[in-house]
Amino acid sequence: MKAFSIVVISILVFATGCGGAKVKVSGKVTFEDGTAISSGQVLFSASDYAVTGNIQSDGTYKLGERKDGDGIRPGQYTVTVHHVTKPDPASPNPQRPHLISLIDENFSKQVDVTKSMTVDLQVPPKK
Question: In the 8-state DSSP scheme, what is residue 55?
Fold first, then answer.
Protein backbone atom coordinates (compact mmCIF):
# COMPACT_ATOMS: atom_id res chain seq x y z
CA MET A 1 0.00 0.00 0.00
CA LYS A 2 2.85 2.40 0.85
CA ALA A 3 4.49 1.81 -2.55
CA PHE A 4 1.14 2.43 -4.28
CA SER A 5 0.77 5.76 -2.43
CA ILE A 6 4.24 6.86 -3.49
CA VAL A 7 3.46 6.03 -7.12
CA VAL A 8 0.16 7.95 -7.01
CA ILE A 9 1.80 11.00 -5.43
CA SER A 10 4.61 10.89 -8.00
CA ILE A 11 2.10 10.77 -10.85
CA LEU A 12 0.14 13.71 -9.43
CA VAL A 13 3.30 15.82 -9.02
CA PHE A 14 4.38 15.00 -12.58
CA ALA A 15 0.92 15.70 -14.02
CA THR A 16 0.54 19.08 -12.34
CA GLY A 17 4.14 20.15 -12.93
CA CYS A 18 6.57 21.59 -10.46
CA GLY A 19 5.68 25.22 -11.19
CA GLY A 20 2.04 25.08 -10.15
CA ALA A 21 -0.79 26.85 -11.94
CA LYS A 22 0.14 29.16 -14.80
CA VAL A 23 -1.57 32.37 -15.80
CA LYS A 24 -1.87 33.93 -19.26
CA VAL A 25 0.03 37.17 -19.84
CA SER A 26 -0.12 39.11 -23.08
CA GLY A 27 0.08 42.71 -24.19
CA LYS A 28 1.29 45.20 -26.73
CA VAL A 29 4.69 46.90 -27.00
CA THR A 30 4.77 50.44 -28.35
CA PHE A 31 7.05 53.43 -28.38
CA GLU A 32 5.94 56.29 -26.15
CA ASP A 33 4.23 57.93 -29.15
CA GLY A 34 1.97 54.87 -29.63
CA THR A 35 3.78 53.38 -32.64
CA ALA A 36 3.86 49.58 -32.40
CA ILE A 37 7.24 47.90 -31.99
CA SER A 38 7.12 45.20 -34.65
CA SER A 39 9.92 42.79 -33.71
CA GLY A 40 11.94 41.50 -30.79
CA GLN A 41 11.14 39.77 -27.52
CA VAL A 42 9.61 40.65 -24.18
CA LEU A 43 11.40 39.08 -21.21
CA PHE A 44 9.75 38.61 -17.80
CA SER A 45 12.47 37.61 -15.32
CA ALA A 46 12.45 36.72 -11.63
CA SER A 47 15.34 35.61 -9.42
CA ASP A 48 14.98 31.95 -10.43
CA TYR A 49 12.74 32.00 -13.50
CA ALA A 50 12.44 33.77 -16.86
CA VAL A 51 9.91 33.63 -19.69
CA THR A 52 9.88 35.28 -23.11
CA GLY A 53 7.30 36.17 -25.70
CA ASN A 54 7.98 37.06 -29.33
CA ILE A 55 6.75 40.46 -30.45
CA GLN A 56 4.51 40.14 -33.51
CA SER A 57 4.39 42.64 -36.40
CA ASP A 58 1.45 44.49 -34.75
CA GLY A 59 3.36 44.87 -31.46
CA THR A 60 1.48 42.16 -29.56
CA TYR A 61 3.08 39.36 -27.55
CA LYS A 62 2.02 36.33 -25.49
CA LEU A 63 4.27 34.83 -22.83
CA GLY A 64 4.98 31.15 -22.57
CA GLU A 65 7.33 28.71 -20.89
CA ARG A 66 7.52 26.34 -23.82
CA LYS A 67 5.69 28.25 -26.56
CA ASP A 68 4.14 31.67 -26.96
CA GLY A 69 0.89 31.90 -25.03
CA ASP A 70 1.13 28.85 -22.76
CA GLY A 71 1.40 30.99 -19.62
CA ILE A 72 3.74 31.75 -16.72
CA ARG A 73 3.89 31.23 -12.97
CA PRO A 74 2.46 34.02 -10.80
CA GLY A 75 5.13 36.20 -9.19
CA GLN A 76 7.04 39.47 -9.28
CA TYR A 77 8.93 40.14 -12.49
CA THR A 78 11.29 42.63 -14.05
CA VAL A 79 10.16 43.20 -17.64
CA THR A 80 12.57 44.17 -20.42
CA VAL A 81 12.34 44.38 -24.22
CA HIS A 82 15.14 43.04 -26.44
CA HIS A 83 16.38 42.94 -30.05
CA VAL A 84 14.46 45.84 -31.52
CA THR A 85 16.92 46.88 -34.22
CA LYS A 86 17.37 48.42 -37.63
CA PRO A 87 20.28 48.31 -40.11
CA ASP A 88 22.95 50.93 -39.47
CA PRO A 89 23.20 53.08 -42.62
CA ALA A 90 26.89 53.70 -41.84
CA SER A 91 27.77 49.99 -42.04
CA PRO A 92 30.72 49.34 -44.37
CA ASN A 93 29.04 46.28 -45.94
CA PRO A 94 25.39 46.94 -46.94
CA GLN A 95 24.88 43.18 -47.57
CA ARG A 96 25.63 42.44 -43.90
CA PRO A 97 24.92 45.68 -42.04
CA HIS A 98 25.53 46.23 -38.37
CA LEU A 99 22.31 46.54 -36.39
CA ILE A 100 21.54 49.42 -34.06
CA SER A 101 19.01 49.44 -31.26
CA LEU A 102 15.89 51.56 -31.58
CA ILE A 103 14.95 51.44 -27.89
CA ASP A 104 16.41 52.68 -24.62
CA GLU A 105 18.33 49.59 -23.52
CA ASN A 106 17.93 50.59 -19.86
CA PHE A 107 14.13 50.24 -20.02
CA SER A 108 12.58 47.95 -17.42
CA LYS A 109 9.31 47.72 -15.57
CA GLN A 110 8.33 45.90 -12.37
CA VAL A 111 5.16 43.81 -12.67
CA ASP A 112 3.37 41.71 -10.06
CA VAL A 113 1.57 38.89 -11.90
CA THR A 114 -1.16 37.39 -9.72
CA LYS A 115 -3.71 36.35 -12.36
CA SER A 116 -4.15 36.28 -16.14
CA MET A 117 -3.59 39.83 -17.32
CA THR A 118 -2.62 42.24 -20.06
CA VAL A 119 0.68 44.08 -19.64
CA ASP A 120 1.10 46.82 -22.23
CA LEU A 121 4.57 48.35 -22.44
CA GLN A 122 5.46 51.85 -23.61
CA VAL A 123 9.17 51.85 -24.37
CA PRO A 124 11.25 55.03 -24.76
CA PRO A 125 13.33 55.34 -27.94
CA LYS A 126 17.12 55.23 -27.80
CA LYS A 127 18.56 58.68 -27.26
Answer: P
Residues 103 and 82: their CA atoms lie apart, in Å, by 9
In the three-class reduction of DSSP (H, G, I as helix; E, B as strand; rest coil), residue 58 is classed as coil
Give 5-23 as a DSSP string: HHHHHHHHHHHH-TT---B
Kindly report the pTM of this predicted structure: 0.73
pLDDT in tens, the chain (127 residues): 444 434 334 333 333 345 568 999 999 999 999 999 988 999 999 999 899 999 999 999 999 878 777 889 999 999 999 876 777 777 777 777 777 778 888 899 999 999 999 999 999 988 8
- Facing residues of 113 across strands? 75
Instruction: Calculate the CA 82 to chain-centre distance.
Output: 9
Q: Delineate the domains of the chain, giving CATH numbers in brackets.
A: 22-123 (2.60.40.1120)
